[in-house]
TrEMBL record:
Name by which UniProt lists this protein: Uncharacterized protein
Length: 128
């Protein structure tokens, strides 16, 4: 399973390899289609819904609701707060994910229930 935004600073108990730092993934500015990209991320299927309040690791005075929830588009897993970090701090996405989002014209594809159940197992291994 491909993952995005599972940065070391965000506190999951298990990080995908290789572990990345959010500090190494901050872009110089927003991408041209940031609004569409973040909408795609926001519209993913929620696999694990966490009722939590996370601190913004780059601006600790800011809080993010349900930030550690895990979402998917059927091919990628990401934390719910990834769209926040892309929007607010210009965090970059893996080029393959960005290409997929654009190829799909910013629309989350339908994913069948069997696939979502399998992905939930993958997400649980990352989150717990």
């Amino acid at each position: 399973m491909r993952t995005a935004g599972m940065f070391a600073e965000l506190g999951q108990t298990r990080h995908p390899e290789p572990v990345e730092s959010i500090a190494d993934n901050i872009g110089a500015g927003p991408i041209e289609d940031a609004e569409l990209v973040t909408r795609y991320l926001d519209n993913g299927y929620v696999l694990i819904d966490m009722m939590d309040v996370e601190r913004d690791v780059l601006d600790p005075e800011q809080e993010i609701l349900s930030g550690s929830s895990i979402m998917t588009d059927g091919d990628w897993l990401w934390r719910q707060d990834l769209s926040y970090y892309v929007r607010r701090h210009h965090v970059t996405l893996p080029p393959e994910l960005l290409a997929t989002i654009r190829e799909r014209r910013y629309a989350i594809p339908p994913v069948d229930e069997e696939r979502l159940v399998a992905l939930t197992g993958d997400a649980e291994r990352l989150a717990f």
